[in-house]
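Weekly modeling sync, notes
Attendees: S.R. (lead), two postdocs, one rotation student

Agenda item 3: backlog of single-chain predictions. S.R. asked that every request posted to the team notebook include the full sequence so nobody has to chase files. The rotation student volunteered to paste the first one in as an example of the format we agreed on. Action items at the bottom.

Example entry:
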Amino acid sequence: MNEDAALALLGPEARWTLSHAVRRQAARLGSRRFIRFEGGPDLSFADLHTRADRAAQALAALGVRAGDRVFAMLRNRAEHLDLLIGCGRIGAVYVPVNTELKGWSLQHQWHNGEPRVIFVEADLLAAFGSRLSADHDFSR
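Predicted structure, as returned to the notebook:
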């Protein structure tokens, strides 16, 4: 079921989501700057909308469905917004994970959160240590 079909079932109040706010602002403000990241890209409202759509499509291609949890162990970067809004567009739950977590604390988050996928910066992979197993593919 796509987002518009789901919204039709939920009623007008469902249109007050972050995903829809971004969509409305992209239509209204287009190329106007939304945010600037230090050392990263400037994003317009239209850029954010497009990137969120791509993130939603990529998540769906990875098998993420409504209700699934998506962990993101990323530093401050534009991809947080892409994933946050992209998750909302497919009904998934975005779970930002503190980049300072290691060992038992990280394992606790992972075990209790039961993520469908985890996005992690390459240099933070070591925090997972020996807790990685063959049934968890963190290469995507």
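Discussion: group reviewed the output briefly. The beta strands are 33-36, 42-44, 69-73, 93-96, 117-120.
Action items: rotation student to repeat for the remaining queue; S.R. to check formatting next week.
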